[in-house]
Write a structure and sequence with these properties.
- The complex is a heterodimer of chains A (375) and B (408).
- Chain A has 375 residues and is α+β, with helices and mostly antiparallel strands.
- Chain A folds into three domains: 7-119, Acyl-CoA dehydrogenase/oxidase, N-terminal domain (Butyryl-Coa Dehydrogenase, subunit A, domain 1); 122-218, Beta Barrel (Butyryl-CoA Dehydrogenase, subunit A, domain 2), CATH 2.40.110; 219-368, Up-down Bundle (Butyryl-CoA Dehydrogenase, subunit A, domain 3).
- Chain A is 54% helix and 14% strand.
- Chain A is built from twelve helices and nine strands.
- Chain A has helices at residues 7-22, 25-34, 41-50, 68-81, 87-101, 104-116, 212-216, 218-254, 266-294, 300-326, 337-349, 354-368; strands at residues 121-124, 140-142, 145-154, 161-167, 172-178, 184-189, 198-210, 256-257, 260-261.
- In chain A, a hairpin with a 2-residue loop joins strand 8 and strand 9 (260-261).
- The relative contact order of chain B is 0.09.
- Chain B folds into three domains: 7-93, no CATH class; 128-240, Butyryl-CoA Dehydrogenase, subunit A, domain 2; 253-370, Butyryl-CoA Dehydrogenase, subunit A, domain 3 (Up-down Bundle), CATH 1.20.140.
- In chain B, strand 4 (147-151) and strand 5 (154-165) form a beta hairpin.
- Chain B has helices spanning 7-23, 42-56, 74-84, 95-108, 111-123, 237-251, 260-268, 281-309, 321-339, 353-368, 375-386; strands spanning 25-26, 87-88, 128-131, 147-151, 154-165, 172-178, 189-195, 201-206, 215-226, 230-231, 271-272, 275-276.
- Classes of the chains: A alpha+beta (375), B alpha+beta (408).
- At the A-B interface, helix 8, strand 9, helix 9, helix 10 and helix 12 of A face helix 7, helix 8 and helix 11 of B.
């Protein structure tokens, strides 16, 4: 039994934490939230120099080929610090989609640039107010031209390349679109978390190449990308939840009411204990997801759904109860509580809602276990 | 990362499995039903099972060889528990004695006493119970009132204990007593072990919600205990009690079914108003939540095993286990009954699905949230010991015990 990060992976985590702390990632998130820049360019450049974006990209395509578990380790730290960069779009989604379903040529064209952070990728899935499921995909590719509108697309306003879910001849699959090649109109969107930029991408005959061996790979390929991303996002969520708990704890130790620290009252203690319990459950489920993407296990779909649900629950709970613990200060612009609160909800919706993932989890469990005899 | 055993662990697991296969029935196997928890006909079966375990070398796995144990590792104990959980064996008789009382004896008793008591306990010949809680000392267990007064080489005990699991079939017990009421609460306690057949001990069974009576009130009227049966210093009883309670987390943890698998099975086999229950969105949402909790606890246990396997001390993550599993069990029981609609109230092994497991659990599950530390105390423990938050101010701190305000 060895169900934990290795010493090397822990070391990587410490290095990542140190770097993000030194670069003031949390302060950078606030700056992006308050300013006009869509992301923190200098932080993104630093991350590029460290090679983090290429962690799971094989050396043949310009990455370090360390592995996906190592990418999970980095994701947790990015989540903890709320680092305002296009990392998740570019790495967990665009690069992973290329690795999953790209042709040799497509991989060679884009992965080295994505690995270095020289190019930014994004992933176009949802189309407005509708579940991001196969039935609701209307974007279509015909004769190598993509038509349709994707919104919201995280980092869609700054990306160089997009992997877009669209219909070809058959069911929806994955298509690669060079966003610099024309045929696309980008409109930046206002969201609840302006520390991460989002856009609407309107495609009007933009050149699009299918991934998945020329067919787009079908929904199965889409789902495989979502499953892997779910695990990586779960680590960001766990990191953010832990940071919110740490923040609440720090405040509870130092804020006095009725002559003693508020952290000595059970009303606060039990709330923080509940945060801890949810985070530990999410951490365990996420770690299992890390194992599953690390070795591409057949358990991945179930593990990914459980990690996603558990981490979404933990990060939402920790973020909202952190505000509650801070009282009036919690909902001021000045304190960072709202940064975690905004991000928690953003991450909760970016790959489809908790409701959708719960439904998917139960469907997977149904097919996994043949029906038993009547009760 | 991997989930495989080391070579030694795999060999040990194979040995355990082989023995269990030959000596017990797997869950779900025909004729595998054991008497339900808390029923008296469990005791002779448990005795027989414990004796078999001892003969096969699976009793006292981590205890020293010279007292009848196996001198093995925590990891071996975990492996044995994992494997045994897949079989129907009589449970609920020896857990407290071997999990809490005997480890305390090993830590504090004299050489002669260890030679005398440990082996018969491991063989199942002598059953032990733990006498801590009192009517006025539950979560605040150091508030015990039962008095021990020195009389020559003996102590004389008067008072009452309560919630004593298995007192009615136990041969020995460990007990925390107040030996000095004039000093603050924690400082006036001493710890003893005693013969449950001593004159002056009266055991009265307490009927619980589920109708069974597996715990008791125990009354002490001028009961004599020799000073040689004191464990630890006079006035040092709290320290010894903490040793016992520390072992409690090994003895109490996961709850019996129904868990996710059972509610999932029920949902797959029931028709609701709009089709199979498993297709109902509300049902699916709850199922997903419970799966994530169950899986999260299972994986948290793997984290603990990883630490043990590396010879490290597990982190605090296991502190979440009892509180989550006890609440999950209660919610699953209630929801399982809801799915049965009006017939959910029928509590009958023949008529209710799955041998009335959900109805049974409805009535049993409140105990899981209290026994071995209430939900509230466990949250305090997580907040204080894991997160480092301050203790509640204690108005009885530094106050002589006999000056501390009490209720009725």
């Amino acid at each position: 039994m060895n169900f934990d990060f290795s010493d090397d992976q822990r070391m990587l985590r410490d290095q990542a934490a140190r770097f993000l702390d030194q670069r003031g990632a949390l302060g950078a998130a606030r700056k992006v939230l308050e300013g006009e820049a869509p992301y923190d360019e200098s932080l993104w450049k630093g991350i590029g120099e460290l090679g983090w974006a290429g962690t799971a990209i094989p050396e043949a395509y310009g990455g370090s080929g360390l592995g996906r578990i190592e990418l999970c380790v980095i994701a947790e730290e990015l989540g903890r610090s709320l680092a305002p960069t296009p990392f998740s779009s570019s790495v967990y989604l665009a690069a992973e989609a290329l690795l999953e379903a790209g042709s040799e040529e497509q991989k060679k064209a884009w992965l080295p640039k994505l690995a270095e952070g020289k190019a930014i990728g994004c992933f176009g899935l949802g189309e407005g107010i509708a579940p991001p499921t196969a039935r609701h995909i209307r974007a279509s590719v015909s004769g190598g031209k993509l038509t349709g509108t994707k919104a919201p697309v995280a980092d869609g306003d700054v990306a160089d390349v997009a992997v877009v879910v669209a219909r070809g001849a058959g069911e929806p699959g994955l298509y690669l679109v060079d966003l610099t090649a024309g045929g696309v109109t980008r409109t930046t969107l206002d969201t609840v978390d302006p520390s991460r930029s989002h856009a609407e991408l309107a495609f009007d005959g933009a050149p699009a190449e299918p991934l998945g061996g020329g067919t787009g790979g079908g929904w199965e390929a889409v789902q495989r990308v979502l499953d892997r991303a779910a695990v990586l996002f779960a680590f960001e969520q766990v990191g953010g939840a832990q940071a919110a708990l740490d923040m609440a704890k720090d405040y509870a130790l130092n804020r006095y009411a009725f002559g003693r620290p508020i952290g000595s009252y059970q009303g606060i203690k039990h709330k923080l204990a509940d945060m801890y319990m949810k985070i530990e459950l999410a951490r365990a489920n996420a770690l299992y997801g890390a194992w599953a993407i690390g070795c591409d296990a057949p358990e991945l779909p179930v593990a990914a759904a459980a990690a996603r649900i558990s981490a979404t629950d933990a990060s939402w709970f920790a973020a909202k109860e952190n505000i509650q613990t801070h009282g009036g200060m919690g909902f001021t612009w000045e304190l960072d509580c709202h940064l975690f609160y905004r991000r928690a909800k953003l991450l909760a919706l970016n790959l489809g809602s908790e409701r959708l993932w719960k439904d998917r989890l139960v469907s997977l469990l149904e097919t996994q276990n043949a029906p038993k005899q009547a009760a | 990362m991997d989930f495989t055993d080391t070579k030694e662990e795999a060999e040990y697991r194979a040995r355990v499995r082989d023995w269990l296969d030959r000596n017990a029935k797997k869950k779900g196997e025909a004729g595998a039903a054991a008497p339900k928890y808390g029923h008296d006909d469990l005791v002779p079966l448990a005795r027989e099972w414990q004796a078999k375990k001892y003969e096969a070398g699976f009793a006292g796995i981590t205890m020293p060889v010279e007292y009848g144990g196996q001198g093995g590792t925590q990891m071996q104990q975990v492996i044995y528990n994992q494997e045994e959980a897949r079989y129907v064996v009589p449970r609920g008789v020896y857990e407290i004695g071997l999990g809490m009382c005997i480890p305390t004896m090993l830590a504090y008793a004299t050489e002669e006493q260890k030679q005398r008591y440990v082996r018969p306990a491991l063989r199942g010949e002598e059953i032990w119970c733990q006498l801590f809680s009192e009517p006025a000392a539950g979560s605040d267990v150091a508030a015990v009132r039962t008095r021990a007064v020195r009389d020559g080489d003996d102590w004389i005990i008067n008072g009452q204990k309560i919630w004593t699991s298995g007192a009615h079939f136990s041969d020995f017990g460990v007990i925390v007593l107040r030996t000095d009421p004039s000093v603050p609460k924690h400082k006036g306690l001493s710890y003893f072990f005693l013969d449950m057949h001593s004159p002056g001990i009266e055991v009265r069974r307490i009927k619980q919600i589920a109708g069974i009576s597996n715990f008791n009130e125990v009354f002490f009227t001028d009961v004599r205990v020799p000073d040689s049966q004191r464990l630890g210093e006079v006035g040092g009883g709290w320290k010894v009690a903490l040793t016992t309670l520390m072992n409690e987390r090994y003895a109490v943890g996961h709850r019996p079914p129904p868990d996710f698998d059972e509610i999932f099975e029920l949902a797959r086999n029931l028709e609701l108003e709009d089709g199979p229950a498993i297709r109902n969105a509300l049902v699916r949402e709850r199922l997903a939540d419970w799966y994530c909790q169950q899986q999260g606890l299972r994986l948290t246990h793997f984290r603990t095993m990883t630490a043990l396997s590396k010879g490290q001390t597990p982190g605090p993550e296991n502190s979440i286990t009892k509180i989550i599993s006890a609440n999950k069990q209660q919610e699953i029981a209630a929801f399982g009954m809801d799915l049965l609609e009006q017939a959910g109230v029928i509590h009958d092994d023949e008529r209710s699905p799955m041998r009335a497991m959900f109805q049974e659990a409805l009535l049993m599950s409140p105990s899981g949230r209290v026994a071995g530390g209430t939900d509230e105390i466990l949250r305090n423990i997580i907040a204080e010991r894991v997160l480092g938050l301050p203790q509640d101010p204690r108005v009885d701190k530094d106050v002589p015990y006999d000056k501390v305000p009490t209720g009725r």
